[in-house]
Amino acid sequence: MSFDPGFRETLGDLFAWRRDVRRFRADPVDETLLQHCLALARLSPSVGNSQPWRFVRVSDPARREAVIASFERCNGIAADTYESERRDAYIRLKLAGLREAPIHLAVFCDEGTACGYGLGRATMPEMLRYSVVTAVHGFWLAARAHGIGVGWVSIIEPDCVASHLDVPAGWRLVAYLCVGHPVEEHEDPELVRHGWQERDEAAAALLER
């Protein structure tokens, strides 16, 4: 399979415009489109072909409220770790679209999966969770290609979320995603746009050893 220059340029645009979304419209996401994006996510590589990702759609209002309560609790604690102007800047940030997003997806790693027979993770068991991250990123890119926004919420309590969603004991939360049509679109990261931090040039350096 070969890809032409036009495709490669468009792919670069997709990577650049894949941004964390926190402001969503209320209109629903087409179910067929959602399932298509999830199917593409499941094409992601996984250590030993373990396929440890487990996607859970959170539709029940009470379960959603429990997740929102966890976020608000953690967000308040996080704000208090900063002082003065930095704390004020933190409070001004919109860090989740939990109330607006029509779709909530909790993505877990099944750490007890027998799939793959343990291949490739004897010395790096964390590769299971990294495999789930590749699926999250695959879903994110697929959704963005169809004009759907995704926001990754990390300011929550993983054990609390897992408990409220009543998932198996061996599942570990990797990502909690808000999904929906974005109110606005930007190429630059929101935290850059709102003055939290500029891009770190050192992070782009290729080190030689």
Automatic annotation (TrEMBL):
Top EC class for this record: oxidoreductase
Q: Which residues form the signal peptide?
A: none
Q: Which EC number(s) does UniProt give?
A: 1.13.11.79
Task: Identify the NCBIfam families for this entry.
Answer: BluB (TIGR02476)
Q: Which UniProt keywords apply?
A: Oxidoreductase
InterPro entries given in the database record: BluB, Nitroreductase, Nitroreductase-like, Nitroreductase/BluB
This protein's name: 5,6-dimethylbenzimidazole synthase
UniProt entry tagged with the keyword Oxidoreductase: yes
What superkingdom does the record give?
Answer: Bacteria
Q: What are the residue boundaries of the Nitroreductase domain, all occurrences included?
A: 16-181
**One MF term from GO for this chain?**
5,6-dimethylbenzimidazole synthase activity
